[in-house]
Amino acid sequence: MQLPALQQQDNPIGIIMNLVFLAMFFVFVVWGQRIQLTISLRDVEYALSRLKIMRDEARRAAVENLKRIGKSDKDPTYYVDRYLEYVFIPPVTMDPAGVVWKYDHLIGVTEDRVKDEVKAIAPAANEAQQFNLQNLLEVAQVLNTYYRVIRHYYIFGKKTASYFMIIQIQMLLPQIMREAEALLGAVHAFTYGHPIGDGAGALVAARFMHGRETKEVAKDTVLGETDIEGRRVLVVKSKGPGGTVGRPGDAVSAIIKKRRGISTVLMVDAGLKLEGEKSGEIFEGIGAAIGGIGTEKFKIEEAATKKKVPLYGIIIKMSTQEAVTPITKEIAEGIELAVQRVKEVIKERTKIGDLVLLVGVGNTMGIGQ
Amino acid sequence: MAKQPGSVFVSLYFMVLGILLVVSAGMLAIGVRELASSSDPSQSMFYVLIGTSGLAITLYSIWQIQSKTKGLKIQVAKVVTVLECGSCHKKVTRNFKEGDYVYGTGEKCGSCGSDAPMTITDVFAEKPPQKKTTL
């Protein structure tokens, strides 16, 4: 199409339009990157304001629940604010030998400290509620960390007018925001103690453990025994219904050391699905099916390798959000599928009379045994 | 704290949007008037095109701002508890109550009148998150 107004030099609007286009050309040539930077900064600024709202909401929920459940005379606000700034100082890894045990020790110290402080600030809370309050505080802490880190890069990028710094953070924002929104969704679950998607493995173990006698084999981790298709099955899960993942690594090490003749270790855990996959589907693998920082996985692999015990894993697929929010119907169906699959694997991979170790991994909030 | 969106940039942005809105509306009006009276429809069409595009850009920008300032929404799922009677094995589903947990105990069975409390066998979100609370 012809644009006559632009071509008519005697038409004042045509002259204006020509000047505008010429000016725009020079503006984009000279300040193009600066304009891009401003647009990118706006995106980061918007994400930052959302993260602040999320952080504040999680903080508010933590304070309210500590007051509601804890019924302490002290105002928990100061404690919550202090906890939000806690950092885990990782051990030095220049000489990596033995670093797992250093991590293990530091994680244990962190857990004990938070547990003691929650106990002090919420004296009326029972053990399960104390665990749930710890989880709630952890959510608020992670959201606070996201907020602080994004704010740091935003301010730094703005001060230095570094386009490349800002676009790097802008590229990461969709993933960060998705995780932050999932954590915000978790606040409600941790407030009321709903079983969450991450507890799928623990619920599978509970299905086999229910009605049997249990004993604590490691910190916050219980063991029960049952029979499946003529095999003796030792079932391990974290001690519910409080929100804890227990110490499955310590439990598996202790059991393999004490009980001779374990023919197979079968682990069930929740795993992140890829985009396009269906929640609640199960898949299998060989190896220790357990996430986290790696210390528990290391212990399980060490113990199994020493005794040459095969390790099998059954994983229930779910999204990041589903892992920290109440179990959905699809995941509940996946759990029942996993229960059936456990029975099949035991039948296929072991002989009658064998001793099998079944480990249900995950946060056992809202799941007893 | 980082500089909030109430900065000079925002004022400038709204000023540009305002100017664009006025200029676009003016061009659209001229275009429509010329279209009716002028013998050269291509020039009038050009004004109409520019005016319409300007209005569309302005309205889209306003819609974007409005959707961004709507606030965050927390998705709250409806969570239900499934209880099973140990005697008659009847299953009952009710809304989740604080303190419920899988393999915990619930109320007595209303069907068989057994004295033993029912066992909670499942707790799950009944439907995908529906209720939304704006922060």
Characterise the protein shown here:
The complex is a heterodimer of chains A (369) and B (135). Chain A has 369 residues and is α/β, with parallel strands linked by helices. Chain A has helices at 4-7, 12-70, 77-84, 99-121, 127-160, 163-192, 200-209, 248-258, 295-306, 320-324, 329-349, and strands at residues 214-218, 221-228, 231-238, 262-272, 282-286, 311-318, 355-360. Chain A has 2 domains: 34-192; 197-360, Peptidyl-tRNA hydrolase (Rossmann fold, 3-Layer(aba) Sandwich). Chain A has 11 helices and 7 strands. In chain A, α5 packs antiparallel against α6, α7 crosses α11 (329-349) and α8 (248-258) packs parallel to α9. In chain A, 45% of the residues are buried. The model of chain A has no long low-confidence stretch (mean pLDDT 91). Chain B is of the alpha+beta class and 135 residues long. Chain B has 2 helices and 6 strands; from the N terminus they run ααββββββ. In chain B, strands 3-2-5-4 form a 4-stranded antiparallel β-sheet, with no helix packed on it. In chain B, strands 1-6 form a two-stranded antiparallel sheet. In chain B, β2 (79-84) and β3 form a beta hairpin. In chain B, α1 (8-37) packs antiparallel against α2. At the A-B interface, α2, α5, α6 and α11 of A face α2, β1 and β5 of B.
